[in-house]
Amino acid sequence: MLKIKCFSLLLILILLLLLFISCDLGIKARTNTRAELRTKAEEIVGDEEELAYLDDISDPKLKALLDQFGVSGAGRKAVIYIRGGLLGDDVYDRLNKLGADVVIEKIIKPTVSLLKARGEALRVIQDPTNEGVKVRLQDVFHRYDNLVDIRGKFIYVVGSEDNFAKAVTRYASKFSKFKEMVKNPRVMDVYAWLDDADQATIDEIENIVISDTYDKDKFNSMLNSLDDYRIVRIIDIYRDIKIKQEEALKAIEGVSDDAEKQNLKTRLERLQGEYNSHIRDAFNKSEGELSFQLTNDSNKYRRGFDVIKSNAKAVKASGAAGGGS
């Protein structure tokens, strides 16, 4: 009986020891995870002095969450900037849903990069002695701010964090060009703020539109009549539809049946021709109608290329299944 009691007591002591070890390891793991996140965040945000022009965080609940995520210094300033008119709880809920890794990689990292470039642009604006150049640089600065609309994008960031990061990263490079603009202040032209990829897209649209009855001056005049947001939307949607068209063509190339492949190619070429006519027709309309036709009214072409791609994949799968029977 005594042996049984001793054995039971020994088992209890062993279980307690194992429980203690497990808790200790859990605490260390959580501590190490927080330390890793903090190191990761600090590596990303870099020197806080570069964001000295931004406000510091004061909301204790939000501050505690960012502490938990390992975000401090410049990262917190970035969160304060993007929160805009949102209440503390609204910002907290969005960041909490995204989690530490996503917040650091998709929100903090691109935003800090953008705001550093933005802060440098603010300093550059103050340098020119020519007041006319300074005014034009300020105009471009506000143009970029309106285009990136980082605060507006943050409202819908949950579920769209990749799009948020992509948009913010795109405009960081634009703010970085302000030093070049001071040396060559051709900043009022609609093309001045377009990067090489944007310009290439405009050139493609121009090649579709220009004809014997529609010259380059008229094309440029129409673009200059649009605000920046509309131009960016036209560029983005044209690129998106072009990607859909390329994906459809790639799917068609995978079809082995020559007759089916030719039929799909004919459909693709017809739809591409209709889309080109759609673009040309838009440039013969008013500013508002042009913008609407090339943005909201272009969805049918995006869907059309998707349908052709799906059909091509179905034909390919059917042929493969038939060949295997």
Automatic annotation (TrEMBL):
Q: Would you say which domain of life the source belongs to?
A: Bacteria
User: NCBIfam families from the xrefs?
Assistant: lipo_BTA121_dup
Under which name does UniProt file this protein? Lipoprotein
Keywords from UniProt, A to Z, are: Plasmid
